[in-house]
């Protein structure tokens, strides 16, 4: 059975997008190691409500590593200290008794803080709206089944499609670049015959929108790949750059 620990949680509190934020520290006692990180925040909020204080605002939805909503910077790492998991999949057994845990929102100009730990990630939606879809007639189900796709391409497309749009890559990047996210979205379509037709135009449109929205440039530090909870590879960035260059040369 998981042992219980006492921790101090140092949480970023910010009333709104324009307000000045600050850290507040709270004590939590007898937290079981099997408690998930978000459940720990639920316990903190119950404690704050009992004390007639404002609960901490944080985003979450599926709590299963699928939706990408639980985007928290924990002790200097997006999604916390463990590899290849989201915040909602992190458990308190990864922390030591008496430890201070610092929890911050994503820090990126393109993701303004809404309140406390919640940020506005609509910039990602706007990039998808610029081209993250297939706009040609791909036929019906029998046509898809009759289109041969190599196992390698299918696997690589599935790997790229595992991106959950959490934004950890942007938060981890010193330039605030969204290249890993955009390249995953470009690749998941460009690798398949149905998406290949518009691959160059898609790359051009999505990169243009990404630049307009204030994301930084990629300088190959690989911090994005290291912190991505889904293990999305930076080889997708190289693939997107090839499509983008192809589009530029054919202009
Ligand atoms: S590439 Fe990884 S880190 Fe970036 S949004 Fe997708 S899942 Fe999150
Ligand atoms: S709450 Fe959905 S991925 Fe964490």
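Q: What amino acid sequence fits the structure above?
A:
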């Amino acid at each position: 059975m998981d042992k219980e620990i006492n921790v101090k949680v140092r949480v970023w509190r910010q009333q709104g997008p324009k307000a000045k934020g600050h850290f507040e520290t709270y004590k939590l006692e007898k937290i079981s190691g099997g408690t998930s990180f978000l459940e720990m925040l639920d316990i903190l909020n119950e404690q704050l409500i009992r004390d007639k204080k404002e609960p901490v605002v944080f985003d979450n939805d599926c709590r299963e590593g699928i939706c990408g909503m639980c985007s928290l910077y924990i002790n200097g790492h997006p999604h916390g200290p463990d590899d290849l998991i989201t915040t909602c999949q992190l458990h308190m057994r990864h922390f030591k008794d008496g430890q201070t845990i610092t929890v911050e929102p994503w820090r990126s100009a393109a993701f303004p803080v809404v309140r406390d730990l919640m940020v506005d990630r609509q910039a990602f939606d706007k990039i998808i709206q610029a081209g993250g879809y297939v706009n040609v007639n791909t036929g019906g189900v029998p046509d898809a089944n009759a289109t041969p796709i190599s196992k390698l391409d299918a696997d690589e497309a599935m790997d790229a499609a595992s991106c959950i749009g959490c934004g950890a890559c942007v938060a981890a990047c010193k330039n605030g670049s969204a290249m890993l996210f955009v390249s995953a979205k470009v690749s998941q379509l460009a690798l398949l015959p149905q998406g290949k037709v518009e691959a160059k135009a898609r790359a051009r449109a999505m990169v243009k929108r990404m630049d307009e929205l204030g994301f930084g440039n990629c300088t190959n530090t690989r911090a994005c790949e290291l912190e991505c909870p889904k293990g999305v590879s930076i080889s997708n960035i190289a693939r997107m750059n090839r499509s983008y260059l192809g589009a530029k040369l054919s202009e």
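Q: And what stands out in the fold?
A: The longest helix spans residues 235-249.
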